[in-house]
Amino acid sequence: MKQLLPAIAxxxxxxxxxxxxxxxxxxxxxxADRIINQAQAFAGTPYKWGGTTRKGxxxxxxxxxxxxxxxxxxxxxxxxxxxxxxPVKKSAIKKGDLVFFNTNKNSRKxxxxxxxxxxxxxxxxxxxxxxxxxxxxxxxxERYWKSAYSQARRVL
Length: 156
What we know:
Elements: H1 4-18, H2 31-40, E1 52-53, E2 56-57, H3 59-68, H4 78-81, E3 86-88, E4 98-101, E5 112-120, E6 123-130, E7 134-139, H5 143-148, E8 149-154
Antiparallel strand pairs: 1-2, 3-8, 4-5, 4-8, 5-6, 6-7
Helix pairs in contact: 2-3
């Protein structure tokens, strides 16, 4: 009985401390962060023309699905996406912006889109789906993307 009383007192202390409300709330993520997280969930997904699932994804499908999760409806095709939102100068690009490319040198039409995930030390990183490597993150400093870059737009 002598050992039982301290055990009951200790149990009372532990449960009474545990019943207090936790008033700490983690900072809520911005809409841009939530969209980026949604897009990043598809990292490594193989490329599939017209795809919008983990089985296969194309560049505009990735953007379409990520924004749709935040109830933002964008056109399904990259060249049509490039007409939405406001144009952004390259020097003013921030995370959540869309970057557009013309990878076909025989045409002036936009045919590729990416989602800016971060701008670090002036380097712009974006998530997109490529035909060769699927969904991944690239940099606008890479020669191929630097030469194919067309414009950026802010839809958020």
